[in-house]
Design brief:
Helices cover 35% and strands 15% of the residues. It is of the alpha/beta class. It has a 5-stranded mixed sheet, covered by helices on one side. The mean pLDDT is 84.
């Protein structure tokens, strides 16, 4: 007598074959295409000419341009550093070492109050102004030499190492003249 294959056995074999085939198909399928790279935004590189119009870079050995806005939490978190930075070097016509500029989309009153809350003193406040295309986030710090060329650019809240880089870049342009 010949053993009979039951319907249950046949269906179990069919399920097993289907699982093996599905596993093989999934394992050997072509890899999904990588997502396209995010579009890159132009940013300032060391040596680029600053695109910020209307600033007299020759008025100081270095110009620090801060792009901030009151509603930016990282700007607010960076204010203690900006306070230390703006009080480190002598300023004014006689000193001629560093000029500090703030560019913000906030209105004049909001910007002035925001800066004074953190005792950040600047030489030029340009409120209600859209930053150049190469500045795509706040906060951004640019250091521009007297020749109008960018010597450093940082975006976001800086770590202690980033803050040290900003100070070192300024010192390389004007020395460590502490007031």
């Amino acid at each position: 007598m010949k053993p009979r294959i039951s319907l249950e056995t046949l269906s179990n074999i069919a399920v097993l074959v289907a699982c093996v085939w599905a596993g093989y198909a999934l394992y050997n399928r072509p890899a999904a295409a990588s997502p396209p790279p995010a579009p890159t935004r132009p940013t300032y590189a060391i040596g680029d000419a600053s695109e910020i119009q209307g600033l007299d870079y020759s008025a100081a050995d270095a110009t620090v341009v801060l792009f901030v806005r009151k509603s930016c939490q990282f700007c607010t978190a960076s204010m203690p550093f900006y306070n230390r930075l703006t009080t480190k070097w002598p300023r004014g016509r006689e000193a001629r070492h560093v000029q500090f500029v703030v560019i913000t989309t906030d209105d004049d009153a909001t910007a002035a109050t925001y800066l004074s809350t953190f005792d950040v003193s600047v030489d030029v406040l340009r409120a209600n102004e859209r930053p150049p295309n190469k500045v795509f986030a706040t906060p951004t710090v640019l250091i521009v030499a007297a020749d109008g060329r960018v010597r450093g650019a940082w975006t976001g809240q800086l770590s202690e190492a980033g803050e040290a880089e900003v100070v070192a870049t300024l010192e390389s342009l004007v020395g460590s003249r502490v007031s």
